[in-house]
Amino acid sequence: MSYDALRHFADSWGLLAMAVLFLGLVTWPFRKGARHHHDDAANMIFKEDEHG
After folding, report:
1. How far apart are CA 6 and CA 19, in angstroms?
2. Least packed by Cβ within 10 Å: which of 7, 13, 24, 52?
3. Full-prediction pTM beyond 0.70?
4. Cβ–Cβ under 8 Å, residues 29 and 38
5. Quick one: pLDDT at residue 33?
6. How many angstroms separate the Cα of 28 from the Cα of each of 34, 36, 40, 50?
7. Of 2, 24, 4, which is closest to residue 12 (Cα–Cα)?
8. Looking at residue 25, what is its pLDDT?
9. Runs of H (alpha helix) within 1-52
10. Distance between CA atoms of residues 4 and 21, nearest Å
């Protein structure tokens, strides 16, 4: 592949792929089953609390 062909691919499909990846990573924490995982992570520091 030449530089021009790679540049054309990156300008068209590369931008689309990065946009889809970005939207997927932004929406991943807000999916339906993630609340349990977030609650566990938030309360993890209190699970082995010896003083009360």
Report:
1. 18
2. 52
3. no
4. yes
5. 87
6. 8, 14, 17, 34
7. 4
8. 96
9. 3-9, 15-27, 34-43
10. 24
